[in-house]
Amino acid sequence: MTRKYFGTDGVRGRVGDAPITPDFVMRLGYAAGTVLAKAKDQSTKASGKRPTVLIGKDTRISGYMLEAALEAGFSAAGVDVMLAGPMPTPAIAYLTRALRLAAGVVISASHNPYEDNGIKFFSASGNKLPDAVELEIETALDTPMTCVESSKLGRAKRLDDARGRYIEFCKSTFPNELDLRGTKIVVDCAHGAAYHIAPDVFHELGAEVIAIGDKPNGFNINDKVGATAPAALVDAVQANKADIGIALDGDADRLIVVDAAGRIFNGDELLYIMVRDRMAVRPIEGAVGTLMTNMALEVAFKKMGVAFVRANVGDRYVLEALQERGWLVGGEGSGHMLCLDKHTTGDGIISALQILSALKRSGKSLAALTADIAMFPQSLVNVRVTPGFDWKSNQPLQQEKTAVENELGDAGRVLIRASGTEPLIRVMVEARDAALAEQMAKRIAEKIAA
After folding, report:
1. Which of 74, 61, 81 is nearest to 25 (CA)?
2. How far apart are CA 429 and CA 413, in angstroms?
3. pLDDT digits over 233-245, tens only?
4. What is the DSSP letter of 391?
5. Residue 357 annotated as catalytic
6. What is this structure's pTM?
7. Cα–Cα distance for residue pair 226/161, rounded to 1 Å
8. Which of 96, 137, 258, 450 is the most buried (most CB within 10 A)?
9. Residue range(s) defining the domain that contains residue 48
């Protein structure tokens, strides 16, 4: 079955347009609540306790409305709710697991502008819900919403110590024998969910922290700041003569790093640093990237004796590939990094701490740690299309794709895919020559626009 509402990262869209409307989100909460209530284990049933879900959100103005709608839906299904307020997505994953709750829910559209919002779920184990469970929730959405009797309605309460719990968890993933004293760090919080958390994590580990993007007002999330707009971080690093800059996105599950010279390091380069650092301690079997991962990593890992597998684009698919093989490290060029020996899901703060520990252990700079890997130039063109656009049956597009692939031969590759979160078709061409990659990506994109 094909999921109707859930994309690669939950349900997402423009606020006020279906499905991100208060009535739908209330029904979504009710549907998810009925699925969770049905899945209670025997001990919970025997005790008569209701399942409890944790709801967190980023800093978008629409979060208040959607939080209230979700709360109403869960309550109507007889599910208790704990409210964490603005918290990073990975924080909700951690707290759900640590507090032994039935599920976690995050209200966020991640790196999208404030006009968008979304809903994503975590299981009791802190992992994103499997496709099968999302399908079960979608099936439940087709059932008319009712309400349990008054004596069985869910209750809601606020989780007051969520911030402190998560800060301590992040710090626990940094090696005990290391600290960040003597390191000046610029932390860009994207005016998002980590604005009151990320600066404190690095400060409490000893760093001198300059925070930017830490004044959310409900409308400025990801606006010219954060991992998707690193120019602000580059400027701040150079203006403050900082040693390193760290940029998160709106829900803090994505990471981009900038060095003292203002050079930007994307997720592919950060994955290489993580793998190299772990290999210096003990051999690792393999790492997972995506269809978009730069070919240079594949070449470098082969030389290192590290197996490399490409998953579909989306950190959930990287996670599935890691779990299938029992591996620990993977990531995307966009900055979604997974370190399963540290957390069950992608976490921008924890990923940054892994990079910082690699720098501290090696005594080398980011540039030095990546000096022996030459990234292949990639050109990515995003083409906005009408929802449901069938690019696979577009003959002119397919013919142009084949022509470009024939011209590239073994010296590059072409990838076309639909975004899982926006009505976009993404065209990526990778070649040894940057100008050639750009020219060919535009050629293919023009066939979509036509």
Report:
1. 74
2. 6
3. 999 999 999 999 9
4. G
5. no
6. 0.89
7. 26
8. 96
9. 11-162
